[in-house]
């Protein structure tokens, strides 16, 4: 066998000998669409792999928060989501279960989602800081900055059309402003990343835990949610 035939055979073997040995000629075009090789499924596996790689990087991040927290809390929901919800940091229940927004604030978030016909399983839910701060204290600016690159990376991988920021910490991290939510809410902001070749429309609103303590702000929160629902309906 000459060298170039040998190389060709090796190439074919390496690219999947089961396809090479089929009875009928392969219709490459049809297979592109129907098989899991090179199809949408691969794109999603690729996304999942990238998110898993981010999780691994957060795991080895040098932070004091690890000393007091029980579990790393990164995300819940769908990696194919069109909308990302970003909170502050895990609380007690989240720390125990290793999932974001599973306590009382999470139950309210589920209701907020349902009110605009969204299911928890179809949005991507995460936090700015991924380890629970002791006694649920607010993350410091240094902690926010330390975790921010991983949040930005998640946004790049998920590639959402909309981001909904829950509370002042998420607003500060993503919109890079110390302005209070009262000033930021009720209007669309634009999030731009170097990696994503698009503008992600972003809204900042009240955190569900704050709404539980101060229900008089629920009306404003509902208005913000409706702004998101309107955009989503326009797209469909
Ligand atoms: N508050 C947050 O900001 N995130 C959670 O995951 C739970 C409560």
How would you describe what is shown here?
- 50% of the residues lie in helices and 12% in strands.
- It is α/β, with parallel strands linked by helices and 236 residues long.
- The chain has a single domain (28-235), classed as Uracil-DNA glycosylase-like domain (Uracil-DNA Glycosylase, subunit E, 3-Layer(aba) Sandwich), CATH 3.40.470.
- A 6-stranded mixed beta sheet has the order 1-3-2-4-6-5, sandwiched between helices.
- A hairpin with a 6-residue loop joins strand 5 and strand 6 (199-205).
- Helix 4 packs antiparallel against helix 8 (141-158).
- It starts with a helix and ends with a helix.
- Uracil binds at residues 87-91, 94, 100-101, 103, 105-106, 127, 209.
């Amino acid at each position: 066998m000459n060298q170039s035939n040998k190389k060709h055979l090796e190439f074919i073997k390496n690219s999947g000998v089961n396809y090479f040995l089929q009875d009928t000629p392969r219709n490459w075009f049809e297979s592109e669409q129907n098989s899991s090789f090179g199809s949408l499924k691969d794109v999603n596996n690729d996304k999942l792999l990238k998110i898993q790689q981010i999780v691994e990087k957060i795991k080895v991040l040098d932070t004091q928060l690890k000393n007091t927290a029980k579990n790393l809390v990164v995300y819940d929901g769908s990696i194919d989501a069109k909308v990302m919800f970003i909170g502050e940091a895990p609380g007690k229940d989240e720390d125990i279960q290793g999932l974001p927004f599973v306590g009382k604030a999470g139950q309210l978030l589920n209701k907020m989602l349902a009110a605009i016909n969204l299911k928890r399983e179809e949005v991507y839910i995460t936090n700015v800081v991924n380890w629970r701060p002791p006694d649920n204290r607010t993350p410091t600016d240094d902690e926010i900055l330390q975790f921010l690159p991983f949040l930005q990376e998640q946004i790049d991988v998920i590639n959402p059309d909309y981001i909904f920021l829950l509370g002042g910490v998420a607003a500060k991290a993503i919109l890079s402003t110390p302005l209070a939510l009262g000033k930021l809410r009720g209007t669309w902001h634009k999030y731009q990343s170097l990696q994503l070749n698009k503008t992600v429309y972003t809204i900042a609103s009240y955190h569900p835990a704050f709404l539980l303590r101060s229900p008089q702000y629920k009306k404003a929160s509902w208005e913000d949610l409706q702004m998101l629902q309107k955009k989503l309906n326009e797209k469909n």
